[in-house]
Amino acid sequence: MLDTALAREPRQCALAAIREHLERGCRVLRDDFEAGSSSAALLRGRAQRVDEAVVALCELTELPLEASIVAVGGYGRGELFPHSDVDLMVLLEARPTGELEERISDFVGALWDIGLEIGMSVRTIDECVETAQDDITIQTNLLEARLLRGDVALFERMRERYQAGLDARAFFKAKSLEQQQRHARFNDTPYALEPNCKESPGGLRDLQMLGWIARASDLAIDWRDLARKRLITGAEARELRNIQRFLQHVRIRLHYLAGRAEDRLLFDYQESLAKALGFEATAAKRASEVMMQRYYVTAKKVTQINTLLLQNFANVLFPEQRGEARPINDRFQAVSDLLDVVDDEVFERYPPALLEAFLLMQQNPELKGMTARTLRLLWSSRRLINARFRADPVNRSLFLEILQQPRGIVHELRRMNQYGILGRYLPAWHRIVCQMQHDLFHVYTVDQHILMVVRNVRQFTMGKHAHEYPLMTRLMLGFERHWLLYIAALFHDIAKGRGGDHSKLGMADARQFCQRHGLSDEDTDLIVWLVEQHLTMSQVAQKQDTSDPEVVRRFADTVGSERRLIALYLLTHADIRGTSPKVWNGWRGKLLEDLFFATQRLLRGATPQQALGLDQRQDEARSLLRYYGLRPGIEEALWSRLEAVYFMRNSAEDIAWHTRLLYHRPDSAEPVVKARVSSEYQGVQVMVFTHDRKDLFAHLTGLFGRLGFSILEAKVQTTRHGYALDSFVLQDPVGDGGNYRDVITLIEHEIEARLKSDGPPDGPGSGRLSRHVKYFPVTPGVSIRPDDAGRHHILSITAADRPGVLFAIAEILARNAITVHTAKVTTLGERIEDTFLLSGAALADERKTVRLQRELEDALQI
Asked: If you write DSSP's letter for every residue of 316-334 in order, what string do you get?
């Protein structure tokens, strides 16, 4: 054994020396980079250092020259990011056997020994050609193959065979399809909260793909070549070089910050990354938000140029597909189902054509897009949109026409935004382009969120979505001049990021737009009012006790008319759905719908009791009980013990469910606990009927938290004979809802066991705090105020969501002898906005109320 160790010692020393040389070289490169050297110098330098190490290992392991070592992929291109894999191929004349196979294995082991993360393949020339034909990824990797050591003639034969089998047209189609599929994995948007700077739309991969197609088609080897071939302009070539440097710089910094191959701009790194890149905070934005806006603008430019170049590549590779031009008017023509300008001076000669182009796209459904020439001219001619352009009645009429078309509204607004036309025509819009919203529930930039809201409103007009939004569709189809809602949607968040109340600031922009575009006073007032009040309905529905007639009356007074109510309901629904796929759920939809119908009845002349449907609910509940075979009057034993507010807070269906379970045991000595799956709420409904106790709410919230459920809504009622009749809506925050039926028995058993014990409430246990909250903390807000009737107090809480937060609140309230009557628990991304209706002697004492408020604030701190 000692002899073996002595024999291996020189090899281990050599490996250590190679590793040290590589690491020292990489440290010097990093120091130079930190001192200001270019990203290109770092990437080339790292590739060169790894080249040296690979060649040295070939010598150390005595790998014969017949085994040619080839760099492929990004490493073959001569670019190596700090923690990227080193892609290598051993190229052979024939499959290895015996000693050669052992030498190759020894060489691969040595690569791992010096700390390289490698991607390794061993292939013959025939295998290279065959696998390249079957796998577009391998074909792409071999496109930039570079010989490091070995048989030059063998490598050149492989290159010749590879080139002979490379079909540029097939390669273009395969890479285009690959890009579509990759973009789909990222929801076809570069504007995510934590984009992938390599793979997301607008990332480095989009640039690399253009280079691969250009090289495979023998069109160019760099951006300057593409400009010489007139596939892009000289300005676009310079812009592409700058974009590439920026994205490379971002990715290099990410790798260094993470200490691994990390390409996602995670919240964990955004602040540090912004500092490393030299971004500074402003009065209204964090440094990370400034950096992310720059990133999104860059990604947007990448997607623009990517679209242009792919179209130009297609024109070169598939000339036979370019059909004859078909005139549309004096300024535009159709070429191969694409809108094309008749000449390069169209926009200079007739500036309104900058808007007319989008209108024509809507009016000619056979058009599938715009030619690269048209898109480039739109982008370069956007400077023509100035104050004089915006004041021209022709242009104002064209813009309104775009909003009034029966098709293509959202698509063309997005295209106008992509090429800078929308931001030039609406100066306020320019300020929100690519502006991130780090409020932890908006997952899109402000401009993309607004366009998503316009899309949602637009879908209410389409029959194909009627099965998804039947009520919305019915209301929209009966709403005269529904295009007014598109304008309200465009302006509802347009003042985000200016500081101050964006609803108030946006009103001025909306009013100015309406007046300049000749809208009537009635239509102007509606749009301005919608912008001002666009948050009101969601706040009332989700934060106030809408079973209180006074709450509904105040909301009805704010609305004033049924037309305004319908408009606000439609906009609110679209707005919530446009924040994030995770924010909308059936419970929110039910809250809004109940408030809508109650307000509608009130505006039509109903009394507050009729508006809330108290008598109607009782009648409907009785009908349901008869349906289930219960005789008339069977409900009175239970109902006589319930306050009127119970019937206001619960639907007829829920009243009937509770009654079926309790009519024969209104004085039950044992707790009655039942749970059921609710498709309406997309969760589990739980009913608890037991003798009231001060810490009951804390017991239940702690138990639900321990079982892993989020509480969407809690209705806590005390009967006239001292029983608690509480109901909850629960959701699994991470599940898909498919297992709810399986856990109903568990929920019932656990609650019954908990209620029969005499111990203090159990906490929900620990859980992992979201890293979103960690890096973008929410300052807790606690408000306690009496309601208008003076019978109860309203507790409003805003805080970061975390495991056990509701239990912490409930425990403090129980400790202070505060009774919870209702709770509305709203989770917006990583933030909670909860509202509780309370009563208790402590609330009548100002000093105790202040102490309670401080105690809650302390408990909500992260």
From this structure: HH-GGG----EE-SSSEEE
Distance CA 347, CA 222 (A): 31
Q: Where does residue 29 rank: exposed (0-12), middle (13-18), buried (19+ CB within 10 A)?
A: buried
Domain 2-166 has CATH 3.20.20.80: no
Q: Please give the CATH topology (third level) of the domain spanning 323-425.
A: Hydrophobic Seed Protein (1.10.110)
Identify which of 246, 178, 163 has the alpha carbon closest to the alpha carbon of residue 209.
178
Nearest Cα residue to 447 out of 484, 494, 385, 408? 494
Residue 332 forms beta bridges with which residues? 341
Residue 393 identity: P
Looking at 35-93, list the stretches that DSSP marks H as alpha helix, in order from N- to C-terminal side. 39-60, 73-76
56-91: pLDDT as tens digits: 999 999 999 999 999 999 999 999 999 999 999 999
* Percent helix / strand / coil, the chain, rounded to 5: 55, 10, 30
Checking if the pLDDT of 736 tops 60, the result is: no
Q: Which CATH superfamily is domain 168-321 in?
A: Nucleotidyltransferases  domain 2 (1.20.120.330)
Domain extent listing, the chain: 2-166, 168-321, 323-425, 431-610, 635-860
Residue 546 near residue 522, CB atoms below 8 Å? no
What is the number of other CB atoms lying within 10 angstroms of the CB of residue 777? 14
CATH superfamily of domain region 635-860: ACT domain (3.30.70.260)
Measured CA to CA, the distance from residue 433 to residue 454 in angstroms comes to: 16
**pTM metric for this prediction:** 0.79
Contact 107/137 with Cβ under 8 angstroms?
no
